[in-house]
Design a protein that fits this description.
Blueprint: E1 5-7, H1 8-15, E2 27-29, E3 31-32, E4 42-43, H2 57-62, E5 67-71, E6 85-88, H3 91-105, E7 109-114, H4 119-130, E8 136-138, H5 148-154, E9 162-166, H6 174-182, E10 186-189, H7 197-200, H8 203-210, E11 222-226, H9 230-236, E12 246-250, E13 258-265, E14 270-276, E15 279-288, H10 293-308, H11 313-322, E16 331-334, E17 340-344, H12 350-362, E18 369-374, H13 383-393, E19 401-405, H14 409-416, E20 426-429, H15 432-439, E21 448-452, H16 460-468
Parallel strand pairs: 3-4, 4-5, 5-6, 7-9, 7-10, 8-9, 10-11, 11-12, 17-21, 18-19, 18-21, 19-20
Antiparallel strand pairs: 1-2, 13-14, 14-15, 16-17
Helix pairs in contact: 3-5, 4-10, 4-11, 8-9, 12-13, 13-14, 15-16
């Protein structure tokens, strides 16, 4: 249940609706987009290409809805003349306006995070560190778009100290909308990668789109960004940004305000010493139960926020040990025969895939390191070239075998032919089923297998097959 609690009259004003009924002082608690469970809530009938929420109004009422938004022009059933309907031009836009209004009434501080890669992991880390000191809520799962973010805001208790929200996008203008809804006190950009190249045209375009997060940041806000990415500095210089906004950097480069030294990686964790302004600091050595140098960078962003919010240095370790990470982001597990699996199947783009390859290259002590990849989607006209480059990057100094599936996966294999040619080192399959059947008997207990692909490829099925045997 979402937790905004307001009268019909208040909801009418906050959403820009029109209501001419008599139940203006009726209290509604929460909003709901799903008609199957709406006890005491405001039902919001969203529409799409294949559905119209208005058709489920009776089901919503049967399940306890007290009121509903209603799009002007949609016929009202005769038996709903006395039911509180708040008329709006667009229920989705009204929900967004309602969330923006509610956010403006809260004393909750908001940390908003975007980036091509790592935003969900950074969200989870940041929330974990802040939770050692504050009452914290965070974006659940991947509810980071124009529907999910308003839902997250409207789900906040009024006594929430800090909300850590994730802002996702696929094109220009989306982050600006989300940032204006969230009105963050702190805005973070984790990195600039290659995701959504098809829609945004170039990495520079991606940087411009991510920097839209500044539009919702207050004049006294704090902007924390990856200082290892020169495109951010270049594009920031073109923007008007109030001089009162405080800017801070993090990253693996020594020039960043927050950086790391003595990084040690293994298949299940990363250990590093936190540096502040190029020197050791009170935060000291930290350990996160997720591998990869890129995740050390994500952890530095979370540490920067925690220290800004006054979280004691000694509680940083406690926060990292208690954090709950969203699944399939380099999640370690064990194969049926004891082999080490790294499930990074949630999504893939060239930047994230290079980071995964670097991680595998840094790990030692295995008989054989298998890199299992699938198509990286939405890369635009250069998709074949980008897949070949991934194969070229996965050389024999980093991995022992490259196995790929999918229509674009064949270009990964083509790129890897410069380094591998034997059957046991290089294979392409059209389907996951063929890949699994070939790979399963070849993986030995002393091996490491990293699995990665775009969300639409569902490569977690490969991990599940290796776990079951």
């Amino acid at each position: 249940m979402t937790l905004i609690r307001r009268t019909i009259a208040q909801l009418t004003d906050m959403s820009g609706a029109i209501y001419k009924g008599e139940l203006k002082e009726l209290i509604v608690e929460g909003i709901k987009r799903d008609s199957r469970s709406t006890e005491g809530e405001l039902f919001i009938p969203l529409t799409g290409d294949r559905f119209d929420g208005h058709q489920f109004i009776h089901q919503a009422i049967e399940n306890g809805a007290k009121a509903a938004l209603w799009k002007k022009g949609v016929p009202v059933p005769d038996d709903l003349e006395q039911f509180p309907l708040l008329f709006v031009r667009d229920p989705l836009a009204a929900m967004q306006k309602l969330a923006m209004s509610y956010r403006g009434e809260l004393f909750t501080r908001v940390v908003a995070i975007t980036g091509s890669n790592g935003k969900t992991t950074t969200k989870d880390m940041t929330a974990a560190l802040l939770s050692t000191t504050y009452n914290v809520r965070k974006t659940e799962g991947n509810l980071n778009n124009h529907i999910g973010l308003p839902h997250t805001i409207l789900a906040l208790d009024e006594d929430t100290d800090v909300a850590v929200v994730e802002l996702g996008m696929s094109g220009f203008g989306e982050i600006e909308l989300l940032s204006k809804i969230a009105q963050p006190d702190v805005a973070i950009i984790t990195n600039i990668g290659d995701a959504h190249m098809q829609q945004l045209g170039s990495r520079r375009g991606i940087a411009q789109a991510k920097l839209e997060i500044i539009h919702g940041l207050g004049e006294e806000g704090i902007f924390i960004y990856n200082g290892d990415e020169p495109l951010l500095e270049e594009e920031m210089a073109k923007l008007f940004m109030p001089s009162t906004i405080e800017k801070k950097t993090f990253g693996l480069g020594e020039a960043n305000e927050w950086s790391a030294d003595h990084i040690v990686l293994d298949p299940v964790k990363s250990t590093f010493e936190v540096q502040y302004m190029g020197k050791s600091c009170s935060v000291g050595q930290q350990q996160i139960m997720i591998p990869g140098r890129h995740n050390v960078s994500n952890a530095l962003a979370a540490i920067a926020v925690a220290r800004l919010f006054g979280v004691p240095a000694e509680q940083i370790s406690e926060g990292f040990q208690s954090m709950q990470l969203t699944g399939m982001r380099i999640a370690p597990s064990t194969a049926f025969n004891g082999a080490t699996l790294l499930n990074d199947a949630y999504n893939a783009n060239p930047t994230a895939t290079r980071a995964a390859i670097e991680l595998v290259g840094s790990l030692t002590g295995f008989r054989k390191k298998w890199l299992v990849l699938a198509d990286m989607l939405e890369l635009g006209p250069d998709e074949e070239k980008l897949h070949r480059e991934m194969g070229e990057y996965a050389d024999d100094s980093k991995v022992d075998a490259v196995i790929a599936c999918g229509e674009l996966g064949k270009y990964i294999v083509e790129g890897a032919r410069a380094h591998f040619n034997e059957e046991e080192q290089l294979q392409h399959f059209n389907t996951k089923e063929e890949l699994i059947a070939w790979l399963l008997p070849r993986v030995k207990p002393e091996d490491l297998v990293l699995v990665k692909g775009s969300r639409g490829m569902k490569m977690e099925q490969v991990v599940e097959a290796l776990e079951k045997g």
